[in-house]
Amino acid sequence: MTSAHWDEQQAARYRAFQYDFPEKTLAGKTVIVAGGTGGLGAALVTLLAREGVRLVVGYRSNHQRAESLARAIEQQTGQSLTLVAGALCAPETRRAYLDQVRTLPGGLAALAGAAIFAGAPARTPLLELDRETMEASLQANYIGPLLLARDLGAALATTGQDAGLVLIATMQALAVFPGSVNYAGAKAALVHAARILATEWPRVRVNVVAPGATVVGMAEASVRSGKYDSALERGAIHRFGRPEDVARAVRFFLEPDNYLTGQVLLVDGGLTLRR
After folding, report:
1. How far is residue 257's CA from residue 219's CA, in Å, rounded to a whole number?
2. DSSP string of 146-162?
3. Strand, coil or helix: what is 66?
4. Which terminus in the chain has less CB density within 10 A, N or C?
5. What does the buried/exposed string (b/e) look like for 139-155 if buried means 16 or more CB atoms within 10 Å of the residue's CB?
6. Using N-to-C axis directions, what is the helix angle for 243-254 and 39-50, rounded to 10°?
């Protein structure tokens, strides 16, 4: 008995070694990149702009940096960015992302997904932690990103189309790094919440990218200070991470109609394995 869902024409192509590997599958579609003006997010924005993606790019408050990125992208690719300002915990900021998407060609139906880079390093020693610093970390690293993912996922689900959401965590959410509890705890919660979100909407894939010691972004200060020099010197990693590494990982999860959801991709060069 043959499955009612079996595609014999597809099977025949595979028996003949005929495979479908489309290129630039996001060209002409819209992608949201929240926190897209920072060191890691800007790399993804650049990668997607080169592919011909319409981009809605968010930032918290640094308007000058956002405008500088927009000018650079237009000079390099000819693509214009649509900018959204504000903290993700604010409902009006989250609404603004979808409002801007609706003004672009294709509206919500053209939205292929989103990458949410927003967060804060929250470097506070354990004995100096108090309720205020912990709440600030939770808002920046967990509550805001999760609420935006929820709102976008619900909106995408109404279209009935395939879409991808990518949340950005950290290697510290997946391995124990002393002194990182205020940051790592919130990001670990985000990882688990992303897996739960992946069960919510049948056509909306939710995945996580967890960067390691990268030379831009929240890890820049630690790398610059020499904190991870020993990892290089003893061969745990052969180089520090680059923004291009993270951008390619996020783009992988944004690929339309891919077969991945509820996964965490650790982009750390093997650092957490060889510590």
Report:
1. 32
2. HHHHHHHHHHHHTTTS-
3. helix
4. N
5. bbbbbbbbbbbebbbeb
6. 60
- Structure-token match 């927003």, residue found: 118
The DSSP call for residue 130 is: -
b/e per residue, 59-90, with b = 16+ CB within 10 A?
bbeeeeebeebbeebeeebebebbbbebebbe
pLDDT number for residue 216: 94
Strand locations in the chain (E) = 30-34, 54-59, 81-85, 111-116, 163-168, 204-211, 264-267
Contact present, 83 and 66 (Cβ < 8 Å): yes
Residue that the structure tokens 């869902």 belong to: 5
Q: How confident is the model at residue 17 (pLDDT cuts 50, 70, 90)?
A: very high
Rounded to two decimals, the pTM is 0.96
Give the span between the Cα atoms of 73 and 268, in whole angstroms.
27
The CATH number assigned to the domain with range 25-267 reads 3.40.50.720
